[in-house]
Amino acid sequence: MKKLKRSERLVDMTQYLLSKPHTLIPLTTFAERYGAAKSSISEDLAIIKDVFEDEGLGELQTLAGAAGGVRYTPKLSHERALAFVQELCGKLQQSDRILPGGYLYMSDLLGQPSLMNEAGKLIATAYADREIDVVMTVETKGIPLAYATAAQLNLPVVLVRRDHQVTEGSAVSINYVSGSHKSIHTMSLSRRALRERSRVLIVDDFMKAGGTIQGMVDLLAEFNAEVAGVGVLVESGAVGSQERLLQDYVSLACLTDVDPRTKMITVQRGNYFKE
Length: 275
What we know:
Structural class: alpha/beta
Oligomer: single chain
Distance between the termini: 44 Å
Number of helices: 8
Strand content: 25-35%
Strand order of the largest sheet: 6-5-9-10-11-12
Number of strands: 12
CATH topology of the largest domain: Rossmann fold
Low-confidence stretches: none
Largest sheet: 6 strands, mixed
Number of domains: 2
Helix content: 25-40%
CATH class of the largest domain: Alpha Beta
């Protein structure tokens, strides 16, 4: 790499760190990359660390010793998280989202990369200090949020299928109960997709009673895997706590009421801010 001015080096170094979250990067990597002394690199990192913390973008941790280096952990500040969730709630409360039957249209929000990236940062912040091997979701609407979260944690994504595909090889399938009508569905996961005893973060776009997520929890038991956490974009507040199948989870928004007659939708902050 050509010799860079310090200002240019700071920009490139910041981009490098942002692209490799949760990765321990030896100082020699930067020293060789820029042809600079480690002392100069340390000074640069101190500047970046201050900016990240002041702007609520995350933490930059320096580990000393021969095996040391620097690690960037994305973490949104409380203020930035609150601003995003308020924006999300505002979008969810738009009256034209009400579909026949009182359902809520969310596909347009799930299709906005910038929105999902911010939501992924929040879920990644909630579980930044957990040991996690993979992020899991069930096809299809939860996929954008799962990938956004995994990108912030620098982890692979595992997709649970509703219908087994022959290209997936042998798979484990289970039945689960989902929806207000207590209908029975099937989900499957390829045996090659997940190593046994993996620590898994489950992510989904919407949770009512929690049947689908509980199905993924039961599926993970077949792999002797551990649930490291559960993150959802929106939860329904219409289900009593005694009826919900899942209690330990993080939600960004809570849908408390949908009135098809008045076209009124009520959404409030999720339990993310109660953690």
